[in-house]
Amino acid sequence: MTYDPWYKTTLKTAALKLHVPHDVFSTLRIDEGTRLLLDYLPAKKPHSVLDMGCGYGALGLPVAASFPDAQVDMADRDLLAVTWANRNAEANQLTNARAKGSLGFREIVAERRSYDWILCNVPARIGRPFIMHLLETGQKFLQEQGELRIVVIRDLAPLIDEIRTERGLPLTECARGPRHVVFSLLAAGQTPPPCADDTSDELYLRDTVEVGGLRLDRPFDLGGDDPRRLSSGLPVLLDALPRSSPRRILCFRCGYGALPLIARKRWPEATVTCVDRDLLATTFTRRNAMKLGLAGDRLEIREAADFPAMLPDVLPNVPPIELVLGELSPSAGGKVAMHELTAISKMLSAGNPSPGEALILMHEKNEREWINPLLDRGGLSINRVIAREGYVLLRMTGQARANNAKKYK
Predict the structure, then answer these.
(1) How crowded is residue 24: how many other Cβ atoms within 10 Å of its Cβ?
(2) Which residues neighbour 264 within 8 Å (Cβ) at sequence distance 6 or greater?
(3) String of b and e for 370-406 (b: at least 16 CB within 10 Å)?
(4) Which of 50, 64, 150, 158 is the most exposed place for a label (fewest CB within 10 A)?
(5) For 211-228, what is each residue's pLDDT tens digit?
């Protein structure tokens, strides 16, 4: 395949080859839960299938290959996963499969579709409210005699049993593996009417946290947001924010809005563009912006599978971007880090009378593994600003160097 910094490996399942990117679920092998669900699919041959939370296509694409007359819709909130699921469908010539971005059933609600099968490998950390929503709403989107099948880790099986009892759902256990359990839920007995369903953000709400003086609602199952990041990581970056007043700011990997909303609060006259590939992240950024009174024309929230790909659209705008704030993903790898750093360097130089700057947070372990080796080849102007409690803050400017990059002191 054509070079892509996100590419990690290629996995084989049945007659398919699945190209896998870094930084998504189950990159080293096809997940055991997915394999168990594929072994225990519903008996009735489908004409329409929904794979909810499709990832790179490990569940939906084998189904599409096994049932070429069925239309297989795949949905995921992670736009990187959606991109690679569609690539894998094309690479395997599966014209009956397509993937789209959707936070839960939101896109399905908009299209008013219903299905013979709905399949889902349920994320372990998604939270009870969404699991209940998945079951009850999924049942509404089934055709008459349709079936919803989910696979969960064994630790979640008691929760499924609780929901079955509480809500009176006709859930049955279909299979049990070493680490996973498959459950089935049949249609209610008749084709449901078009569903105007509750897709409230409350389904995903985990708790409220304080970051940089702002009280932010935080969702379940948003990667990378562990207690150490809140107590040690983000403060490293916030302590280094410049005193000057930039006119235009870009925040990448915006999460649920900490960096862009702190920037909006600190520099109310600046225009802040923020981007994330996870629709849950951008949904909660919007939620928190409204809650804090920071929404409006000066806050632009975007979704992109790969944020450097959106930069050509951003760059022509006036004024040029003067400050970039963001984090490198520890699971995306060094090639993606170099891809992003190079794009940021070019962006800071574009249209700026004096090049802007970027403050980028990363794990100290990844700095040792990636940054010096990559800089030897990259010619980027970059310095270490702060190192504290396992985190490092890098400062970049838009001035590319002709020779090797400046070494750390």
Answers:
(1) 21
(2) 270, 272, 289, 294, 298, 299
(3) bbeebbeebebbbeeebeeeebbbbbbbbebeeeebe
(4) 158
(5) 999 999 999 998 778 888
